[in-house]
Amino acid sequence: MTKPLVQLLEQQTFTDEEAARLLSLTAPDECRQLQERAYALTTELLGENVYLRGLIEISNICTANCRYCGIRKNNHAVERYTLSEETILACAELAARSGYGSIAIQAGERRDPKWIEWIADLLKKIHARTVNDALPSGLGITLSLGEQTYDVYRYWAEASGNPNGLRYLLRIESSNPTLFRSLHCTPGKNEKVLEHRYRALEDLRRAGYQVGTGVMIGLPGQTIEDLVADIRTFERIDADMIGMGPYITSNGADMVSEGMLPKAQLMQLSLNMIAVTRLMMRNVNIAAATALETLEPNGRIKGILHGCNVIMPNITPQQTRSSYQLYDNKAGCEVGAESNVLVENNIVEIAHRRLGLNQLGSSLRWHTRTGT
């Protein structure tokens, strides 16, 4: 006999079949029940705060050739850039003055010694310039700079100056080995291996980071069972934070011909994935992806209503944002950094939340594990 949905939603653990059932919901009333339970659980465990991560896209130069990505190495149509150190520091100082509490530094993947040293020096300067009365340890920092060695992760961690606000986002994109291979099957030195991604995530934990990962939702060939396996992988990794969003095609990538799900279907599946991840992972941080806003103008509000507690407003200078298009029609390219706190505050108020200003917003799961 099928368990009533209201009873299923109150569980703390779920079988794969139960998780698949929740991910597959499409009836409006059932989707509403899932949303309300995820929102209530987020409030119960994590409170009403939504935390800011000011996103700085410091460079779109990349040595990798991931087939889904608009800044892949073989996309020769994109204008490449690297922000100057002073521009990045100005963005960080703006975030510190504006109450962000944390920033996220994102770039294409590079491993050359010059880049590694430049990032380390940049982290030291960001820390030195963002210590103030409201942020006595400086800004929290999330790095999203791809696969590196343990020694590099440790080197950057030591340079950050704020071990309790140190995070790294390294998405797996899919835990299905066949799907993963199809996303990264360009032959040669840029080819990705799923086992290497898992090893890198282990290295990040050893190096002292709060570990973030995530997947794309609605990939060509992806099944509901794949998404269940993705959440089980989050559990196995014991991830502290999850960054995931809908798969949206990019004309600069190599997968346009494979298409994407219809927007309404993709949006509902993405919201279900957020909500079910909240029910199963419970005390992790979950970010409301900008890609949700690309599907719908109020997409991030819906993300918060389904269990997200982190948002990542883009504070990169506007003149380079159009060159960091991981997918087409990326939202947020037109909003100036100076107005983002007002914009984000409106978003969280509509979702009946409040901004956690001048707070690191570290993961409760990380706090519980480490006792900090």
From TrEMBL:
Q: Which InterPro entries match?
A: Aldolase_TIM, Elp3/MiaA/NifB-like_rSAM, FeFe-hyd_HydE_rSAM, HydE/PylB-like, rSAM, rSAM_sf
What are the alphabetically sorted keywords of the record?
Iron, Iron-sulfur, Metal-binding, S-adenosyl-L-methionine
The residues covered by the Radical SAM core domain are 48-289
Report if keyword Cytoplasm is assigned.
no
- SMART domains under this entry? Elp3 (SM00729)
Look up the record and name the cofactor or cofactors this protein needs: [4Fe-4S] cluster
Q: State if Lipoprotein is listed as a keyword.
A: no
Q: Which protein, by its recorded name, is this?
A: [FeFe] hydrogenase H-cluster radical SAM maturase HydE
* This protein's encoding gene: hydE
